[in-house]
Amino acid sequence: MGDVEKALQTFYSMKLKDIMPSIPSMPIVTADSPIVDVLKLLRTRHHVWVVNNRDEMKLEGVIRYLDVLSILLPPENTKARLGNISTVFKSILGGAEKASDVMERNVMTIDENATVMDALTKMRRYKVQILAIVDENNVLEGEISLRLLIDEFLRLMRVGGVQWLQNGSSSPLE
Questions:
Q1: Residue 161: per-residue pLDDT
Q2: SS (H, E, C) 87-155
Q3: If phi over 0 gives left and psi between -120 and 50 gives alpha, with beta otherwise, what is residue 102?
Q4: Percentage of the chain with pLDDT > 90?
Q5: What's the gap between Cα 145 and its chain centre?
Q6: Please, what is the end-to-end C-alpha distance for the chain in angstroms?
Q7: pTM
């Protein structure tokens, strides 16, 4: 087995709890946070987690960068489809004032003891790039994103003393 294959096997079997970022480094707001606070975070982040409060940290939802379009557009510019009428009310002009008014409630989650392979499989199956890591009580413990997984894979490649070339082969680092 080559160096790249060995790195991939190690990568796939890693536990998410070993690579997830710490809670203080994550973009988190409470359900009652003003939309302005959410927008401030979304200037530099691709998502914001919404929790019930800072003490319990129960995950309530997520607000993604692209959700800002629904927040900023007036309700008449939002196409309401059957089953998706709630997007009309996610606009500031439609009455949205706090994070809970605009968040997506159906958040893809995963356990901290899941492996990288589990996370990659779930991301692909549900076409998402980020998963909330929660415990059995739905308490937010961390996150795992495709970007973090890419960083971790590249870190493994450097640690292994292998440079991964574009054609998929590997060579020792000079």
A1: 55
A2: HHHHCCCCCCCEHHHHCECCCCEECCCCEHHHHHHHHHHHCCCEEEEECCCCEEEEEEEHHHHHHHHHH
A3: alpha
A4: 64
A5: 5
A6: 21
A7: 0.82
Q: What is the pLDDT of residues 128-172, one digit of tens each?
A: 999 999 999 999 999 999 999 999 998 888 766 555 454 444 445
The SS3 call for residue 156 is helix
User: Among 63, 60, 64, which Cα is nearest to 51's?
Assistant: 60
Express each pLDDT in 83-97 by its tens digit. Answer: 444 554 577 877 889
Residue carrying the six token digits 């190690």: 10
Q: Which residue has the tokens 């440079």?
A: 163
CA angle 103/106/110 to nearest 5° reads 115
Residue linked to tokens 């160096």: 3
